Amino acid sequence: MVSTSNIVLLVSLLLTILVALQFNEGQSFTPIPVPVKVYVTNNLTGNLQLGIECKDKHQDFGYQIKHFRESYIFTVHPTFLFPTKLFWCSFSWINGAKYFNIYDQKRDEDDCDKECRWEINAYGPCKLKAGSIQCFQWNANIVEGDMITGEGNNNHNV
Ligand SMILES: *[C@@H]1O[C@H](CO)[C@@H](O)[C@H](O)[C@H]1NC(C)=O
Prior knowledge:
Blueprint: H1 4-21, E1 23-24, E2 28-29, E3 36-42, E4 50-55, E5 60-66, E6 71-76, E7 86-93, E8 96-104, H2 105-108, E9 115-121, E10 124-129, E11 132-135, E12 141-143, E13 147-149
Parallel strand pairs: 3-9
Antiparallel strand pairs: 1-2, 3-6, 4-5, 4-7, 7-8, 9-10, 10-11, 12-13
The protein binds 2-acetamido-2-deoxy-beta-D-glucopyranose.
């Protein structure tokens, strides 16, 4: 038989721990993550169609063809405390195929609160941030047909 005061004590203790964990090195606040809607918009010049397929290790959102200014949309569920979610996309159009880590929780969680907006250009994907745009290079190489590694995510500001 567990008394009510013990339960209250336990709940308070858990809440205290939870609140304590929210403060990451005393500066940035790490809220319990909410689902993030990722928009990947065809921004290719010349009215070109763009084939997009996004996935992670467990989920594949399928191949879709998007016209200019149309978006491929999917939802990711960020992990709590340890930012480990990683989704990548392949982009195919007349230029061939390019790959990019479209949602890298470590990189993106501060910019993408409830949604993450990307626009895909021939020279690379750009992320819409509050009041600015940050552009990235395509992923450099592909290993084992699926996992993407390499120095692909160095940004260059335009
Ligand atoms: C979309 O394309 C236009 C025209 O090329 C460009 O000026 C703009 O920066 C692009 N948007 C993003 C977010 O990359």
